[in-house]
């Protein structure tokens, strides 16, 4: 899987993608990440890529041409059937593990368009026929965090990234509550115990407990 990130701030990704599981996946060539800065695709002398919105309103909007040129560079001559173009929008389809798994198993490339300021000219999404995706019902200052969420969630679905298939939550009965040693944690004079069922060694009962915990959170 090759992630192509269109962003004004590629350095915002450095610390995350160069460490831990994602960093190892890149090193092992399980995934690749490339960046495309719209400022490198503008013909403006000052490398300006934002403009005032038509119809008025606060802030500035990323112009279409520089973003489209960056996307064109990312997509290149690839078969579009192998490319998922994602346009982050709070009105888009809610991002989920089901969608992450689809991208990981069906596509070879993911182009992630990160907005800034008041967003990206809406014609970019229409011209590219990009999938509108939202990671939640809230507003962020840019698309970099949503892009990292998608990059991480999709990468987890790629064989070999986590090391074991069992590490992918959907492939096992996972509880939202997990415990480790000590069996009895004493904190500020109070004792906090690990649920007795987890110490029983009775695997069927443990799985039932995990499933119950999971359903209570859904």
Structural write-up:
It is elongated and about 70 Å long. The protein has about 220 residues and is of the alpha/beta class. The chain folds into 2 domains: about 1-165, Alpha/beta knot; about 175-215, Trp Operon Repressor, Chain A (Orthogonal Bundle), CATH 1.10.1270. Strands 2-1-6-5-7 form a 5-stranded parallel sheet. Strands 3-4 form a two-stranded antiparallel ribbon. Helix 4 links the parallel strand 5 (about 85-95) and strand 6. The protein is built from 7 helices and 9 strands, in the order E-H-H-E-E-E-H-E-H-E-H-E-H-E-E-H. The mean pLDDT is about 90.
What are its keywords?
7 helices, Trp Operon Repressor, Chain A, 9 strands, two-stranded antiparallel sheet, 218 residues, Alpha/beta knot
Strand order of the largest sheet: 2-1-6-5-7
Number of strands: 9
- Can you name the CATH architecture of the largest domain? 3-Layer(aba) Sandwich
The overall pLDDT average reads 91
- Total of helices: 7
- Radius of gyration (Å): 22 Å
CATH class assignment of the largest domain: Alpha Beta
* Annotated CATH topology of the largest domain: Alpha/beta knot
Q: Report the portion of residues in β strands.
A: 15-25%
Query: What does the main sheet amount to?
Result: 5 strands, parallel
Poorly predicted spans: none
The helix content is 25-40%
User: Secondary-structure element sequence?
Assistant: EHHEEEHEHEHEHEEH
Question: Alpha-carbon distance between the termini?
Answer: 30 Å
Pairing-aware structural class of the strands and helices? alpha/beta
Silhouette: elongated
Fourth-tier CATH superfamily name of the largest domain: SPOUT methyltransferase, trefoil knot domain
What is the count of distinct domains?
A: 2
């Amino acid at each position: 899987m090759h992630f192509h990130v269109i962003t004004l701030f590629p350095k915002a990704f450095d610390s995350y993608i160069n460490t831990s599981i994602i960093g190892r996946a890149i090193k092992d060539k399980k995934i690749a990440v490339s960046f495309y800065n719209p400022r490198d695709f503008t013909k403006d002398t000052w490398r300006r890529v934002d403009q005032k919105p038509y119809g008025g309103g606060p802030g500035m909007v990323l112009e279409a041409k520089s973003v489209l040129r960056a996307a064109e560079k990312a997509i290149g001559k690839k078969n579009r059937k192998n490319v998922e173009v994602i346009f982050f929008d709070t009105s888009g389809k809610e991002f989920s593990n089901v969608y992450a798994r689809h991208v990981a198993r069906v596509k070879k490339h993911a182009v992630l368009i990160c907005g800034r300021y008041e967003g990206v000219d809406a014609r970019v999404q229409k011209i590219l026929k990009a999938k509108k995706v939202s990671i939640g019902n809230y507003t962020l200052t840019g698309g970099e965090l949503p892009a990292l969420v998608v990059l991480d969630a999709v990468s987890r679905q790629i064989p070999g990234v986590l090391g074991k298939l069992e590490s992918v939550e959907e492939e096992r009965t996972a509880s939202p509550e997990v415990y480790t040693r000590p069996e009895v944690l004493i904190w500020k004079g109070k004792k906090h115990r690990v649920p007795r069922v987890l110490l029983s060694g009775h695997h069927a009962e443990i799985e039932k407990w995990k499933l119950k915990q999971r359903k209570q959170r859904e």
